[in-house]
């Protein structure tokens, strides 16, 4: 899995845990639903940190909490 796949999976996991839809997440995060859907459906190959921060704000969590998962820690270094 690459970073975008892990981000998508994390967003879906958090929505599932909180029992919210993608549209509800977008509203909570003050983002257009298309921004969230572009990440989830692969149209955004490099989501901006500002967008991820807004998603975290909407989910009432920090960026550190969002990225603190075994899946993110297991990502291989991209530049060697």
Automatic annotation (TrEMBL):
Q: Where is the HTH cro/C1-type domain?
A: 11-66
CDD domains noted in UniProt: HTH_XRE
Cited SMART domains: HTH_XRE
Alphabetized PROSITE patterns for the sequence: HTH_CROC1
Q: Which GO terms describe its molecular function?
A: DNA binding
InterPro entries per the UniProt record, alphabetical: Cro/C1-type_HTH, Lambda_DNA-bd_dom_sf
What protein name applies here?
Answer: Transcriptional regulator
